[in-house]
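Q: Got a minute? One more chain.
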Amino acid sequence: YNASRSNKPSSRVADPDDTDSDETERAGYNNSRSNRSTIRTKEIDKASPKLMDVLSMDKTTPLLYDGVRIRAPQVCGEDGCDDDDPIEPPTRRNISIHVSGDDVRGWSEEKKQAVRDRLAQADEATSANDFGIRVASAAIENENVVDIATGPEKTEVTYNSRVYLFGFIPKSVTAVARADSGSEVSVDYPWYGFFSRKGDQSFGTSLAADIRADHDVMISVEEEGVERSVREEE
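A: Always. Here it is, folded:
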């Protein structure tokens, strides 16, 4: 990934009481069924050919059936979520992609090369369909990436970074770079980051911004397809 945005990132110290789970849709996904419901995400059944067809993904696409988690909104009542609660019909507009850096870097060299070959052949239209692979590739090629989670409105890249405690003591930390669809980027550090001089933030912010841009392309492709279908029906 190359940096495509020039926004100056902001940085803040993470709240130690922040208990946002992986399943919570941090982007505040807007669902019209109930504005009182808590929106969470649930991993979709990738063995369902129908769902994969909707997402323009198939078993010839390497890795999507292994280490890339695809989640869709799950609407829960005020009493909380039940594991058996159904998910919203997944589309490229509402899914989120989750990748673990350790998982994808643990794949065989043959499998990693299959990803590189697939992406080398992808044009702009195909890259939207292969978005999950593009996210996995970012983690494969960057050993500092811990985790990538990207949803309809926000992308988060958790990565290993370095700060200088009290300005001179080097310390490795886990930082979280965030980019939203409004082109805003920021970086969160552990609570003691307040007492630290930050290292180079460009790696995390550039990666998060580029993945966000690709995710927005995927959403726009879906929206263009919907508009085209409506015009054809008219």
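A: The first helix runs from residue 49 to 54.
Q: Perfect, thanks.
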